[in-house]
């Protein structure tokens, strides 16, 4: 009996030791790609380090394309999912907003991306964006509602604003926020990414937990 128990324990330990890390793809635009940042300091590498430091055995793949829109994302999602990731983090819509594209079109495109993930039983974390006010309050409300609506429709995890970390750090002060942005005033610098990752991390950890339960 003792020998059988010892064998069982050794088999369990061996299985744990050889378990492969979870594979999650981060899909989006320049905020995902890491525009203007060292390759090891963008959103994806910083988030992977945060998750690993918090006990998650994961490998994040960077599927960010600078300048991408929701339409571009919808056009390439099938190719991206051909690698069969177990989880998907979606951060798209910023370029649509900057160009004043119709919220309903962005919603349709994001829905297509979520539908593709759902068809492969891939768990999703959808990251929202706060729209600028220069297109009017109605546009802002309509665009920001896209993310919560789709998260509910597809039972996805939702993180409402990609820039939450910076916003919290400066109490919403846009002037103070410049300290954490690159010279273009749009993309976060290394310190800004770190703040955003610290805010996003706990929800990304929920994604890992969802995947682990499959």
UniProtKB/TrEMBL annotation:
One Pfam family it belongs to: Lipase_GDSL_2
This protein's record includes keyword Lipid metabolism: no
Keywords linked to the UniProt accession: Signal
InterPro entries: Ester_Hydrolysis_Enzymes (IPR051532), SGNH_hydro (IPR013830), SGNH_hydro_sf (IPR036514)
A GO MF label: phosphatidylcholine lysophospholipase activity
Superkingdom to which the source organism belongs: Bacteria
Signal peptide: 1-19
SUPFAM superfamilies assigned to the protein according to its UniProt record, in alphabetical order: SGNH hydrolase
Domain SGNH hydrolase-type esterase: 26-194
Keyword Signal on entry: yes
PANTHER family (alphabetical): THIOESTERASE 1/PROTEASE 1/LYSOPHOSPHOLIPASE L1, THIOESTERASE 1_PROTEASE 1_LYSOPHOSPHOLIPASE L1
Full protein name: Arylesterase
Organism of origin: Parasedimentitalea maritima
């Amino acid at each position: 009996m003792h020998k059988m128990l010892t064998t069982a324990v050794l088999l369990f330990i061996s299985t744990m030791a050889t378990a492969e890390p979870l594979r999650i793809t981060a899909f989006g635009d320049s905020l995902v790609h890491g525009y203007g940042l060292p390759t090891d300091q963008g959103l994806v590498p910083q988030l992977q380090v945060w998750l690993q430091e918090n006990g998650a055995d994961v490998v994040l793949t960077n599927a960010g394309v600078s300048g991408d829109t929701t339409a571009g994302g919808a056009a390439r999602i099938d190719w991206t999912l051909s690698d069969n990731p177990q989880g998907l983090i979606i951060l798209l819509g910023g370029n649509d907003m900057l160009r004043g594209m119709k919220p309903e079109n962005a919603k349709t495109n994001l829905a297509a991306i979520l539908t593709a993930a759902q068809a492969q039983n891939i768990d999703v974390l959808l990251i929202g964006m706060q729209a600028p006010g220069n297109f009017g309050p109605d546009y802002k409300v309509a665009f920001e509602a896209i993310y919560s609506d789709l998260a509910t429709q597809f039972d996805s995890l939702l993180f409402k604003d990609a820039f939450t970390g910076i916003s919290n750090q400066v109490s919403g002060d846009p002037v103070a926020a410049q300290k954490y942005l690159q010279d273009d005033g749009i993309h976060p610098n290394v310190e800004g990414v770190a703040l955003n990752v610290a805010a996003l991390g706990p929800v990304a950890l929920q994604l890992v937990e969802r995947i682990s339960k499959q």
